[in-house]
Amino acid sequence: MVRLYTEDLSIGYEERLIVKELSVKIPDKKITTIIGPNGCGKSTLLKAITRIISHQSGTVILDGGDISKENTKLLAKKMAILPQTPESARGLTVGELVSYGRFPYQKGFGRLTPKDYEVIDWALEVTGTFEFKFRPVDALSGGQRQRVWIAMALAQETEIIFLDEPTTYLDMAHQLEVLELLQKLNQEQERTIVMVLHDLNQAARFADFIIALKDGEIVKAGDCEEVIHPNVLEQVFHIDAEIGRDPRTNKPMCLTYNLLKGEK
């Protein structure tokens, strides 16, 4: 079953078209990764699917309905997004930040209920951040802060989570920490994860489905065997890639590459 898909989706800013008539199905309860060069429309696509920005034409369908016609709070109960550069959490404790994920469920004056506090504590436990509950967000390391932002997304209790470059600015250990957490959420709680990644080997290692974009169009969409392939990477990144096997996962990995000379 496919809950989420786009049909002929075009997205642009003023007269500049970024994404062009894109149709794609997002596998349910899987990890989907979007790869592609800078400026190809990866972040723009995520923002349009989650209705942060509007699209010029086409449709985004979730559970059989057009998301442009969906009630905002109802939509926020179905999908959560962690943007590339989350807004500042200056002055907030970890618990306060995570509580913002309960906004779609609040009524009246927005007071938190016992159920809200239960979900907040659960999200903190799952992400390994409960010990930081009363600590200022600004006092945490980069990896810890990223896990807290993920906890906020989890507090929304959505089945679909979007993340725009969740490993940006993190060192190798913290990158792996975040990706393994997302993999655990997918495997143990069947969350559908959709994320933008720059690292091809991380995409191959953690994704069930990869979408390779270039100039706002899909070059290839499929599993890692289909996408992490020399011919596809040549089209997408204009590189001559040497593909081998990850000795721990047996998945394809980019061992090395050269830039191809000539016009792209």
Walk me through what this model shows:
With 264 residues, the protein is of the alpha/beta class. It is 31% helix and 28% strand. It has nine helices and twelve strands. The strands form three sheets. Strands 6-7-8-3-9-10 form a six-stranded mixed beta sheet, with helices on both faces. It has a four-stranded antiparallel beta sheet with strand order 2-1-4-5, covered by helices on one side. Strands 11-12 form a two-stranded antiparallel ribbon. β4 (57-62) and β5 form a beta hairpin. The mean pLDDT is 93.
Give me the secondary-structure topology.
Blueprint: E1 4-13, E2 16-26, E3 31-35, H1 42-49, E4 57-62, E5 65-66, H2 72-76, E6 79-82, H3 94-99, H4 114-126, H5 142-155, E7 160-164, H6 172-189, E8 192-196, H7 200-206, E9 209-214, E10 217-222, H8 224-227, H9 230-237, E11 239-245, E12 252-259
Parallel strand pairs: 3-8, 3-9, 6-7, 7-8
Antiparallel strand pairs: 1-2, 1-4, 4-5, 9-10, 11-12
